[in-house]
Amino acid sequence: MASDPNPAPPGEAARPAEHYDVVVIGGGNAALCAANNARRAGRSVVVFEAAPKFYRGGNTRHTRNMRVAHDEPNEVLTGPYHEDEFWDDLLRVTGGQTDEELARYTIAQSKELWDFHTNQGVRFQPSLGGTLSLGRTNAFFLGGGRSMLNALYRTAEDLGVEIFYDAPVVALAIEDGAFLSATVRIGEREFVVRGGALVAAAGGFESNLEWLREYWGPPADNFLIRGTRHNRGSILRMLLDAGVQPIGDPTQCHAVAIDARSPKFDGGIVTRLDCVVFGIVVNRDAERFYDEGEDFWPKRYAIWGRLVAGQPDQIAYILIDQKSITSFMPSVYPPLKADTLAGLAQQLNLDPQKLERTVSEFNAAVRSGNFDSTVLDDCRTEGLTPPKSHWARRIDTPPFYAYPVRPGITFTYLGTRVNREARIIMEGGKPSANMFAAGEIMAGNVLGKGYLAGIGMTIGGVFGRIAGREAAANVRN
């Protein structure tokens, strides 16, 4: 079996070979795309996944879809999504903070991901319903991210990729910008594995709370990590310490508002709340702080984590009424419910008079129109700061509902600078001879800030393919 390529004596853990053409660190979408491509090129390939087998795949197992450019609909995608529209969407959410060459290249290459993943056994399904409305732009995985991962791993095993779980890489030997070897811990032993090329696909540092605290200070203690607990940034740190050129703002990340009752780690996509556009959001002081109807939810949902992070105690509350309770995909946690706003405020430990005043001022500012959550409708507020630009309806129909939310960090944007070949760039601007990066560890090249639903998987798939191909073509040692 690929997960036990070198049987050890009884009582000993399996051990890797002394040398591989391509060493892949990580176990998610980007890593497996790279490993499979390199193996198809005839290279010997090993994958070191730090997580146990059950938790393999990093944040990929929490995903549902990937964003892909395409010129015509197919059996799943409901209409065309041309490269220029994809670029305009990305430009809007990043505010221009992106490497345009790499971003446009990513978008162009995304057209090939459907066939590439299909050939690896991944299957797709029509878009899920709800507020994200991604049926035209995003391909949804049949069975979700875990099913997609299982297909990639089955393909890897069939190809002869060697895979080790519970196998953190604890050291890298790099000289003059070239990869020489990795030291991996398996069980109680450490092995030095030489490699002809390296693909770093081990994610960001979002589950390293100490590292987050370096940039965020005490507010980081109130963050929830909705992604994997295994992305601690150890490989990223090793690469940066070895002279790799960094990219990205360390305070920027894919951060969404998730249910405050979620676990500290690994809550996943089901903890996200998509009801912001149907109500209002208030902070601990029962005050609104941002336009809940600024734009379509797929283009704005990923700003709300940072918005909540900027509020007192990093806590906020989404308020809706009976009119909206069935309009969105609910959280795994039921909403708090009361027949009066004062009763709801008591459950939330908010000042009842302040909450009633905030809702009353909002209701008075609403200018009714033709409510339609699928378009930028004309339901808005007037004379209110902050405004609600679309989908504004009075909160006046009991019972009233609330969801408490905190910042939910999916992945961080500080990473390694790369070029179009996925080749890691060293300090001074020189490309590495044989080191490549894919996925979240280099996503900051494309995502300077903000997020577009499904683009994390796009970046991982595009640069995973490239990294595998280029690593196979640039084996040294």
Automatic annotation (TrEMBL):
Q: Where is the FAD-dependent oxidoreductase 2 FAD-binding domain?
A: 21-455
- Name the InterPro entries for this protein: CobZ (IPR012831), FAD-dep_OxRdtase_2_FAD-bd (IPR003953), FAD-oxidoreductase_2 (IPR050315), FAD/NAD-bd_sf (IPR036188), Succ_DH/fumarate_Rdtase_cat_sf (IPR027477)
UniProt entry tagged with the keyword Zinc-finger? no
Q: Which UniProt keywords apply?
A: FAD, Flavoprotein, Oxidoreductase
Superkingdom:
Bacteria
Any one GO MF annotation of this record: oxidoreductase activity
- Any keyword Flavoprotein? yes
* PANTHER family registered for this protein in UniProt: FAD-DEPENDENT OXIDOREDUCTASE 2 FAD BINDING DOMAIN-CONTAINING PROTEIN, FUMARATE REDUCTASE
Q: Which NCBIfam families match?
A: CobZ_N-term, PRK08274.1
Question: Could you identify this protein by its name?
Answer: FAD-dependent tricarballylate dehydrogenase TcuA
Q: Which organism is it from?
A: Propylenella binzhouense
Record lineage: Bacteria, Pseudomonadati, Pseudomonadota, Alphaproteobacteria, Hyphomicrobiales
